[in-house]
Structures
1.
Amino acid sequence: MKWEENVRKTEPYVAGEQPKEEGIIKLNTNECPYPPSPKVRETLENLDYEALRLYPDMNGEKLVNALAEYYHIRPGQIFAGVGSDDVLAMSFMTFFNGQTPILFPDITYSFYDVWADVFRIPYKTCPLDGDFRIKKEDYFIPNGGIVIPNPNAPTGILEDVGVLEEIVAANPDSVVIIDEAYVDFGGKSMLPLIDRYENLMVVQTFSKSRAMAGMRIGFAMANEKIIGYLKDVKFSFNSYTLDMPSILTGAAAVSDDAYFKETVGKIIRTRERAKGELAKLGFTFTDSKSNFLFASHKKVPAKEIFLALKAGNIFVRHWDRPGINNYLRITVGTDEQMNVLIGFLKKYLKEREDD
Ligand code: PMP
């Protein structure tokens, strides 16, 4: 068909499964196992339903102001979007418009190459070393932009802020995006450097540490000029992306720092405990500083374990991709969920050995 020649053809991102069945232990998409702050519930319960007939505030002002206060920056340094996927996609469109390839690690968040493809952005991936670490020299070449997650996904590895700063400093002619989706679980943010480097943008999300993946809230922090360019593109696309409930519940979540710290603390404690338990079963890991483990078994192929877990109604993530196909990415759930996982694996590995 002729019309098909004009279609923007693209290979879409494949998200982790969202199973509909009851009774599944879902450790496959890095959601938070705890509910959002009670202040979020309160806000939803008191939502002014009549106000929903109005368009929401285009800038998500209440949310942006809450974030500005929390992070001690100016509201003009923040851009809020519909999950960090939205913020990142908008940023790719806004900042990566050159002919020179943009750079990102070869093992990383698998949406980056999808956005590059859909927006026709040339890109080059930089191989991680044998320990899944980035090699900073790879980013000291001419490029059209850089995006690096810290901690990286799906490895969970936290890069030293000093190394990332060297990359930002060496690339004054490119926008460098640091995707900090998992930074709250033990990482160090690049945020304090946004005043020093005009080309640095930090992106974070409410989907993990603030337990609000269902609300879809993400945000970018950078200098006013960068944020201004991002807004120009967003407002040329769709002005009202963040809906009213998201703006209000997002602001409520930010106001409850005690709950946020408590939730993150629980996840970190469970993560470290699970590492110890799984190590006893023959698993090895990266030193994940995120809300997931990146684990490989010394004897049993990851795919086998993945399928066995799935058959046992425990969903984790596995990629059939070179370099990472012998790893499982296991979201850190509650202690109870992790106990079920560990119990299942103990039994499964024992039975397999006995066969
Ligand atoms: N960046 C990374 C590294 C991620 O793993 C994710 C979660 N899939 C995101 C961004 C996007 O998260 P969200 O759109 O829910 O904010």
Note: The two ends are 56 Å apart (CA to CA).
2.
Amino acid sequence: MPEVITIKSGREIEMMRAAAKITAGARSIGRQAIRSGITTKEIDRAVHEYIVKNGGKPSCLGYEGFPAATCISVNDEVIHGIPGKRIVHNGDIVSVDLCVTWKGYVGDCAGTYACGEVSEEARRLMETARKAFFEGIKFAKVGYRIYDISEAVQHCVESEGFSVVRDFVGHGIGRGMHEPPEVPNYRPAHGAGARGNPRLVKGMTICVEPMICAGDYAVRILPDGWTVVTVDHSLAAHYENTILITDGEPEILTMADDI
Ligand code: MF3
Ligand code: CO
């Protein structure tokens, strides 16, 4: 995995677009699979089949030993939930996060979706995660730095009375699922030097991914070694796309019409 920020060539951008297109399609499949009574493993299976059918490889499967194609995180689970026997019920909010590798290039996206009727708070939380992504990428342009995105995300989330997770961040992406730079969802108080806070350059591909909580931002990892949950059991939501920095507006590589 590269230790420096990679600037993609035109040819590489084509590969990233192709990988991201399958990734976005797979997220739609995951969203459509959510219904009362389904298990998280069944959602995972539907997404996994779609990825393979479209010529991609589920990058999460086997990544540091992760056992599935997708991360499915329900309610107070923030990220990295392991698909399994858990049944999704009416009123739950379900995060689907996945990566696809296509010809060596990776796409990454996530979204949190409702199963049936959910609380007003849950709906506002999901909408805020999505809105924070779009507020953040207003600064995903040449002339700005990474933390300008971070600050916009944080401001959006906190002005709704919610909090942003500190312990996990967005990231660069390319041949590696996680490349530099880190893309925090808050403006770090210290170390805001050029190294942590690089300028945005045309040809960079990054994942902007607000992970937000209805209560406090403290999280912990369950004994399964993966699932990240809020300490206070408040609801969490996640929204992520892989984007390309261009001469003008950022290109959302993992965008689909329905998300
Ligand atoms: N989109 C997730 C991330 O960036 C994918 C994790 S794959 C896993 O962290 F295998 F680590 F779960
Ligand atoms: Co990611």
Note: The mean pLDDT is 96.
3.
Amino acid sequence: MNFTTFLQGNIFFGKGYLSKIIEISKHLGKITLIVTGKKSTKESGALSNLIDYLKDVGVNFVVFDKVEPNPDVNIVEEGGKVFLENSCESIIAIGGGSSIDAAKGIGVYASYKEIIPFLLGEKALDKKIPPLIAIPTTSGTGSEVTKYTIITYKERKLAIASPLITPNFAILDPDLTLSMTQNIVRDTGVDALSHALEGLFSLGANPISDLFGYEAIKIIYKYLPRSFAKKDDYEARESMHLASLFAGIQISQSGTGIVHGMGYPLTVKYGFPHGFSNGVLMPYVFKFELPAQYEKMSIITNILGFGTGNLYEDAEKFIEILLDFYKILGFPKNLKELKVKEEDLEIFAEEVSKNERLKRISPRITTYEDILFIYKNAYFGVL
Ligand code: NAP
Ligand code: ZN
């Protein structure tokens, strides 16, 4: 067994830990840029609490609150200009994965005065972006610890992957997730599950990333239905925040896979939340990948307590467990039900099949025809 891995970032996890920003305030410089979404952190009070802490320690700030889900490159560039015009020295992202990803992109823009060539893979980062503190308010993306940012450019979700954009500090305070609605809990929770599963099945997986993946699955299986069912189940919300963190640590090493690749066009064209797109596709992708990953699928079945002792039966059972789990969460069964147009599938398959990175880490060789086959199965609900 050979593997090379790189773990980085400082993590604070705990109730009320938003206040940890005080402890690390010396890393913020004289003035920091707060990057957040349009509404939720204001409504929940998270933003004003953060601002109060910054005032306590005498750090000046500028608020950039224009981030929308699936952040577009224009917003990132605008945020980058605000950073430079105000001579900011650090960035605090508070919000969902979109705010954290936008903040990473803003960091890139602040360092290079451009971002598009990095998204297109024409240039590679060679210096660390300004100090970045990430404070997630959803439990799903793990972006607070990942080396990725996903930015929308010309109707495509493109990634920059580099340890140079990994946040220096991640502050995970479960209190900040209590305001999530049922749909946000479900979609972000299923995103964390997709990270854990795809991370395990990816060819980029290693024994350390697998540890985080199996543990995240156990937690999500137990706590996502509870977190979904009740807003004030603190233990469930806290556990889901932990699972999301674990899966984030995992995918920073393993990468994700074609579930994510195939989900992006659905999100861009139909506006489905990121985790929702992944969730609908997962059973169909994993059915396709089963011959290549039946051992790990069987391990999952056993970890969740449904093992029969027969490797192949247990691998098949894994797909059933996933579908039963979806029933609890009221998840749709196929793309047709969601009014996706069948004629779009070829266009999506064409786009996904061009992604070389996905092909490298996909456990089964995946051609255009394979991807179209999976989309069609997901469309008609064929497993
Ligand atoms: P999001 O797009 O950040 O937010 C979705 C919605 O949830 C927004 O309307 C947001 O409102 C609201 N929201 C956030 N926190 C809330 C809270 N505590 N209470 C109530 N509402 C809240 O959702 P996300 O799933 O966390 O992030 C998805 C993005 O992350 C996608 O762009 C995806 O591609 C990316 N992603 C990145 C990575 C990575 O490693 N970098 C991994 C997976 C996914 P406001 O807009 O008003 O704040
Ligand atoms: Zn994701």
Note: The pocket of NAP (ligand 1) is lined by residues 37-41, 44, 69-70, 95-99, 101, 137-138, 140-143, 146, 148-150, 157, 176-177, 179-180, 184, 188, 191, 274-275 (CB under 6 Å).
